[in-house]
Amino acid sequence: MIDARPAVEQLRVAFTQAIIGVGSLHGIPILRLDKRDVPTVAHFIHTHPGLRGSLSLLWAVDHRPREARDELCYLFTLAARKDWLLLATDLPDGEREFSSITPTLHAAKWYEREVRDLFGLIPVGHPDMRRLVRHEHWPKGTHPLKKDFSWNRVLERVQGQYAFRKIQGEGVFEVPVGPIHAGIIEPGHFRFSVAGEPIMQLELRHFWKHRGVEKLFEQQQLTAAVPLSERVSGDTTVGHSLAYCQAVEILLGMEVPQRARYLRSLFLELERLHNHIGDVGAICNDTAYVLAHAHCGRMKEQLMQLNDRLAGSRFLRGVNCVGGVAVDVTDAQAAQVVTELDAIERDFTTIEKILFANASLTERLENTGILTERIAWDHAVVGVVGRASGMDRDIRRDRPFAAYGELQPQVPFYRYGDVRARMRVRLDEVHESIRLVREIRRRLPQGPLTVRPRREPVAGEWAISAVEGWRGEILYVVMAGELGRIHRCKVRDPSFVNWPAIQWAALGNIVPDFPLINKSFNLSYAGNDL
Amino acid sequence: MFRIIKKSLKTGVVTGHHPDVNVPHEPVSREAIEKARPFRRSMTIREVDTGSCNACEMEMNALVNPIYDVERFGVHIAASPRHADALVVTGPVTVNMERALKDVYKATPDPKLVIALGDCAVHCGMFKGSYAVTGPVERHIPVDVRIPGCPPRPAEILAVLEALRKDPPDSAR
Lengths: 530, 173
Known about the structure:
- The complex is a heterodimer.
- By secondary structure, chain A is of the alpha+beta class.
- Chain A has 18 helices and 15 strands.
- In chain A, helix 7 (258-286) packs antiparallel against helix 8.
- Chain B is α/β, with parallel strands linked by helices.
- In chain B, 31% of the residues lie in helices and 16% in strands.
- Chain B has helices spanning 2-11, 30-36, 55-63, 98-107, 119-123, 154-165; strands spanning 43-49, 75-77, 86-90, 93-94, 113-117, 133-135, 145-147.
- In chain B, the strands form 2 sheets. In chain B, strands 2-1-3-5-7 form a 5-stranded parallel β-sheet, sandwiched between helices.
- In chain B, helix 3 (55-63) crosses helix 6 (154-165).
- The N and C termini of chain B lie far apart (51 Å).
């Protein structure tokens, strides 16, 4: 499936001195570097016209108690072939400093701050060294993902003040919003610097909902953590649990049966459908088009009730399990799903036509919240937001999982990068999802639903898996520990990547349009804060 | 404009078209019903999320869609705790949200009702014991009504709101 060999060869030639070792694991090439050389190599991968790698994930591992070292890993997606390439570097016992790659790669900004907060490793040269996950009232030296930090430690509270970036000048003032803000919504803090109505600067402060998910994973057995992964972000139950299951399946050498693969695709598409339809309605609602919102809400509810009938959960909880799926769909049920989706598609198409014919709606959506292709690329933006800004990427097509290798999904993409483009991506994906469900029903093979593990997990072995959830690319890195436990589980929801980009999309827009822009991104706070 | 009105007329009334659920898991206490007495005809809710996974909020959002249409029972959702008669709190209380929750509670005018929605708010659910979680909602503010479930279905939430509007089953009047 993956062939990054030419790229590795190219790097080898360019950096003979720097590369300590070349390896590969589960088909992903790994280059091991000295920590001083990481910024140069990362910059080369990012900018070289033949590679054009975007940073997909950056994570750290504390290898204690087996080995006294910390490891930093940088996962790149190469633009041309859509392959993965991994850079790894070691920080031997006690060493806390590493060179930051943020000055040349914007996308690393939050990742490095996160590594600093959770592991106490210091990205030297990082332009923004404020705390990210640990709010100011956390005591000094609390780095929860270090192995000597107990998962159930009670934190005391200290004094501290977060310093927001300031813009000064005549008539410039700040509008602080949150963490508890309007509507039925998750907590987050937004600080607008405005002069009159237009936004001059938006600064986000998140991580209010940090629940210690990654540490909780480390308390679990590999096969038992599926329910936790389902609760990382409530609206992406199937996406997260599927990504987690796939990673564990690699570690246990499991080949998921054909029928289970198709059913996984089916559930993933059902999840995408109800979320996308809900989002289209919500965007209309924020332009005060309440009737369209009501219609979309009705269709969304219809889909949620369909989920409930199929799986006994409106959010499709409990459908994925390690090795396959836990819920079967009978022929009669599959036929009924298709009939119901046919009806919804007719219904939805009528609404869609009405929306497109509505000039006052288009007027609000056009040229609002533009995220340019350049900024999207710099921040390695993923998912719906990326596809609306000219990033033609979809994991379902680029590195197929579940049954997508045979289904060949079509990927819509636009270049305007405004709210309208993001809405159009969603509208197109709704139709595509319904088509895929029909296709799945037509091809659904018979057979078993689960397999048993073929081998015991090897302590220290790890696996990466990617799933295109409805919001975008979800990544999981799972590393096995002793006795079938999890040593490290890095979770990356697409929101973590897309949140910084919203700060750019909001610039120059008026404050009252921000809810609309925010809604068109519709990012998860829970999946971001973990 | 006329097209969407035509569409709406053709769609007809969908309110109430949801499967029945056999609830409540936990009967609403007498004290809570007494406390909710002033809000029987009209109750304004402020939703506060202190660390949930967002599924509970989605179900609260579903309450205002045309199928459940909670407004027909006089229940409104407010954007500010200053307008609220009741707080619906979801999620385990995280270390970072503890202060904000207490502030919201203080900002809500008396008399007020606190509803803990979902397993996380009731007993921290899966996040119990984590370093980043300071305990269930009732550790920080007094809770009057508990709605368990992960997440509870909208019809279950409706049933509890309904129970708050009725006289207690064993009441003398």
